[in-house]
Amino acid sequence: MERYREPKYRTIYEAEENELEMLREKSEKSYWKPAFHIHPQFGLLNDPNGLAYFNGEFHIFYQWYPFSAMHGMKHWAHVKSVDLVNWKRLPVALVPVEDYESHGAYSGASLEVAGKLYLYYTGNIKYSAMDRSANQCLAIMDKDGKIQKYENNPIINGVPNGYTGHVRDPKVFEKNGRYYMLLGAQRADLSGAIIIYESENALDWTFKGELNLQIDFPESVYMLECPDYFELNGKDVMVFSPQGLKAQGHDYHNLYNVIYVTGKLDIDTLHYEVEHYQELEKGFDFYAPQTFAGKNNERLLFAWAGMGEINYPSDQEEWAHCLSIPRELKIIDGKLVQRPSGALKQLRRDSHSKTITIESGTKCMDQGIGQHELEFEFDAVEATRFGIELFASDTEGLVLEFDREKQTVRLDREKFESAFGGEYGFMRSSDLRIESCVKVQVFVDHSIAELFINDGEVVFTARVFPKKDSKGVKVFSNGKANCIYTKHALKQGIIR
User: Fold this and answer.
1) Of 43, 89, 109, 400, which has the fewest Cβ atoms less than 10 A away?
2) Catalytic choice (47, 228, 251, 445)
3) Is-catalytic flag, 47?
4) In this structure, are residues 360 and 485 in contact, taking their beta carbons and an 8 Å threshold?
């Protein structure tokens, strides 16, 4: 069958003379470019892929379309680090030039096998704007960093009966001496599912069946993307991204959302006994997270700090999106908690603290800089409402507000000249038990803020695009509140 073609389906090998250099020059001076978050030099970044600690180094791959801030022919870009904070850009890892990946090297994960890093990914195929298929593919990286596509690709040709061409995002793991591949899928009736293949050698795969998740998703859910699986504290944990969830109370207000599930996986019967599930993150810009085992076998997570089908202000500069900071996952009181990786402390270059008491109103804590880590501890709070404002100026600000009467926390990003995404609302919120002490840790990096409440009990990720003079940090309350405030100036962590 003839393949579908349009201009956005071209690779970097088809770039015109000086085209990539011109794109780089246009975007490199952007004030909104992050300093320590992984981001594209130009073009569009989305899902993190192939995350691994391999041969003494951290390797992060990500979806990349080079030619503009849109979703086109996806490549795998590649950065590495020895410490999780200082990143080096490497040559593009996967360029989709083969017939089995004719419309992009889509997302996937990695697994170390026999001393090599196996990179599993989906080869996207399109026959028309609406008709598509998918192949599961493999590339192999040796200890010298050389990456080659597997000579017998695709390792899985097409999709199994009963499913549409929306089958993608392989996650491979070893369990009980066998290898298993999770894939996000869409059934023929246009409902979402996770399917599983198995293998004895991580190369030759047989369809095993569909995972029985024991979650009654509404009929609106049409796809389960980016499945991730790991074991933590004796629990089997899955993270995935259901498409089509409708908003419920404080939950699921983004176009696409992410949930996690804890329980027990019986891989032989494909039965998952669910103990608990909930939305993983409460922010605006968090999708397609992927986890991996770190240097000390800790469970680390990166996510795409963006959202599909929304126009971002940086699009006009021919670049879009970044990844989250690395987060360490823990299970506390039966729930999955995200905390900033301790490795990020290496970014600190200057710190200072102060203690204040607010009787009522707003106090300016700092004029701020483009990149910093902030810690707040509100104690002995008598106010019913209190909080912080980031990227603050006379006209702009990202507002985090705690409400003791409602026992909620909310984040509001409407107050920006370059506000965006209003069709999905400018506010996100969560239930939160607010007692005498509330802690907030924030990472600010030019056009992104990641906020961790009470050691990761609630987490918000928000992209914002402030004016250059919107750098202030304020605290506010409607009654007496004591606040300990610590600011850490942070250095740049990635080659721009």
Assistant:
1) 89
2) 47
3) yes
4) no
